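A quick aside before the break. I want you to see a complete sequence-to-structure record at least once, exactly as it would be stored in a machine-readable document. Don't worry about memorizing anything.
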Amino acid sequence: MSDKDFGQYQNVGRRLIRRDAVERLTGHTTYTEDIRLPGMLHGVLVQSPVAAGRIRGIDVDRAAALDGVVKVLTAKDVTDRRYGNYVKDQPIFARDRVRFVGEPVAMVAATSLAVARRAAGMVEIDIEATTPVVDLREALTSAEVLVHDRDTNVIEDVHISRGDVDAVFATAHAVVHTEIESHRAHQAYLEPRAVTAVPAPGGFSLLMSTQQPFGVRAQLAELFDLPTGAIEVRVPAVGGGFGGKLHLLFAPQAAAMTLATSRPVQIVCSRAEDMVTGNPRENSIVRMSSAVDESGRILARRCDVVLDAGAYAMDTPILTSMAAFYATGPYRIDALDVRGRAVYTNTCPTGSFRGPSGPQMVYAAEAQIEDIAQRLGLDPAEVRRRNFIGEGDRGPTGELITLRGTTDECMRVVESRLRQWRQADVPRDDHRRRGYGLACAWWSTLGTPSAATVELHEDGTATLSSGGTEIGTGAISTALPSMVAEELGLRPDRVVLKSGGTRDAPYDSGSRGSRTMFATGNATVLAARAVAEQIRNEASRLLGVDPADLVLREGRVEVEGAPETGMTIADVSASAHMRSGPVVATGRYRAELAPVEGSDLRGARFLRLGEPTFHCHGVEIALDEETGRVDVLNFIAVHDVGRVVNPVGARGQVEGGVVQGIGYALTENLRTNDRGVIVNGNFHDYRLPTIADVPPHIETLFIETNHSHTGPFGAKGLGEPPVILPAAAIGSALRDLLGVQPYHLPLDADRVVLTMAERDARPTPGQPPSTTRPPEPEVER
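That is the input. The structure line, written in tokens, reads:
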């Protein structure tokens, strides 16, 4: 899509309140759990109590005999086909073997939830427990304990290579090593996963809390060997997703039961079920080494990333490619040797979480910058500045960067704010020490396929039909209608939105990858512009003027410079309906793929990043050295995401992401014991940040001078970047305060106290504490 004059818009760039705000705030929103259908059954899953074992038998007789129970399903009752986004390795119910605690083994459907739960407890499962492998390092090298019937637990192996890394390392001024170990984090959406399956002629329908209805439909069609059109997915309001609702969730189980009973079936996870069977952000090990010259210029980098996939692949194969791609950070590095691997363990499968692999990769890349600066005696900001990637450079996969790099602009704003905070007075009664830090990053915007339909009615109102799903960002519910209004010269309230399902709208790739504003927005604008062209052509005939001389604004079609010659859009639309047909168009979009050269990619699931965005966050923290508690006092987030379509929504995205990132950095940690049991699967022990844990003001600034060449109105994606930087910025501030870098995440009180103790025990001042780093992983080369 060509760029256009970014003059004064009527709607784009204005502060718009989310259309569904009142409905949500007053409790009138309908979620999947609220749905009740005639004859509906309640489904409850029977789950494995052990992390690994062989199923010797399942006795469902007592459960099936209970009054109110309609059906009990096990693996023998359903197809043996398996499903998965990228690797089809997951059965509907465990068949012969169980691979993680919580894996579905059977399912009960009953006329009430209470009966279903009681019956589920009566299903007798005979499992011969075997030794699980739950440790990532052990799983990486083990040939004895294998999660699947394969000769290795490594499921994905990605290599990126460019240039002669060995030669550069051999002759470089210095080689600096950094190793980061990260933890698991749950998406912690407020609405647990839920699905209702309903019988339909030749197939079934789903009402489901999902971010990706078309992806769900495609996978279920394949799993149950049904025509795609025989399955419909409708999406009621989604109470948060953050990547955790991109998968099938328990749709296969609900669909299998509705096919078996010919009745509606609903599964709603309890919070505990959701926490132990969801797909959290993966734990990982990142080993990074850079060869540098005396000025801090990074000449070459090696990186080995190991991700814990859990028991099934889910998204991890593609996340492995993403992690490898982001191993450079926002820096130009001409020689690369990057390897990414995903590894099976007998733990809950991991998957997408807002900014997949981002927080740990940003943390590793930024800690590496600070390690380089310390090694060379340089200012870390200057090291960053000497290496920032920009227009004309090539990214890690060899893709040409065609936009101006603005990371330095973002960082200069943050540096200025850090200086102000350092100079501010500290209250006399506050004896906590202060630390100041920043982190830089880049991210990309997915340009995956999307379509949208816009219809202009005879009364001058319009309907936008989008397959995109509103997951709380406001991009679908509010920004897209404002784009249609902009193109058609209408008020936003004259545009009705239909979205959230596969029935009433064309295909969309789903709300993920920071793509909805960009890709779904492009499809929407293309459709609206086609409708506008139809209106201009009809008005041209009615007014006897050239279509190029006509403008659409304030509900009218007017001759530019002579508004008295115009007509209402309603009159023009009504005329077009009767003369040539309905005024309607569908836009379809897929981003062009940037040319790549110079890098050798092996095993990658995709070959290039999307439209780049640039970012910097800064933070002031206070540390209580007696307890190890870290408080975030001030935070600034500076983002270049092109044109901001709705400042209210954009600010909300950043503030929410920063809070989520602070939680990831300081308190959230989904812990699994050595038996593969999640030990804090509830919102009491899994510590989410509250309003008391975040700074009262998160300063949010946008660099709006670097518009996308291809995004709608110059916009790029914003959904994911705000969450990927806070941990690295807080780590930088702790380093500023402690004099050493924590190399383990999260940076909770225990970790901070341990880091201080190891620093104090360090034998030689000025050297990095050896014991704050995790042990060297036994990684294959």
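Two observations worth writing down. The first helix runs from residue 21 to 25. The longest strand covers residues 298-310. We'll return to this after the break.
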